[in-house]
UniProtKB/TrEMBL annotation:
Single GO cellular component term: T cell receptor complex
Pfam families: V-set (PF07686)
Protein name: Ig-like domain-containing protein
Coiled coil: none
Domain Ig-like: 17-125
Top-level taxon of origin: Eukaryota
Alphabetically ordered keywords of this record: Adaptive immunity, Immunity, Immunoglobulin domain, Receptor, Signal, T cell receptor
GO terms of biological process kind: adaptive immune response
Length: 131
């Protein structure tokens, strides 16, 4: 029998590269638990005074960081790879990652990142890891 509550991801405090101190990005949820096939949403909030360039990356176990999607300008909803999408909301400075349905194969560490105009180094969130 299937486990009705599949733990998909949780955020753990780890050291990751931080970019410009004038910009910040955060994934606020300490834990997210979902059932197989449920809708997944990872929250990402940012702080930056100008128009941000926003990204989501994923790192599957034993693999290097992989690009999922980006927001530069234009449509608020951005379609990415593997069925992921993210919605840019300037009004509350958020760029939440979504997928429906989510599966065991989505087990990975997810990172939201921000790169401001003229910044050479992106700022990464601390990430979220499937339990």
């Amino acid at each position: 029998p299937e486990d009705p509550a599949i733990p998909l991801l949780g955020i753990y405090p780890e050291d990751v590269p931080t970019g410009n101190s004038a910009q910040s990005v955060d994934q606020p949820d300490a834990h997210v638990t979902l059932s197989e096939g449920a809708s997944l949403e990872l929250r990402c909030s940012y702080s930056y005074s100008a128009a941000p360039y926003l990204f989501w990356y994923v790192q599957y176990p034993g693999q290097s960081l992989q690009f999922l999607l980006k927001y530069i300008t234009g449509d608020a909803v951005v379609k990415g790879t593997k069925g992921f999408e993210a919605e840019f909301r300037k009004s509350n400075s958020s760029f939440n990652l979504k997928k429906s349905p989510a599966h065991w194969s989505d087990s990975a560490k997810y990172f939201c990142a921000l790169n401001g105009l003229g910044s050479l180094n992106p700022t990464f969130s601390k990430g979220s890891q499937m339990l």
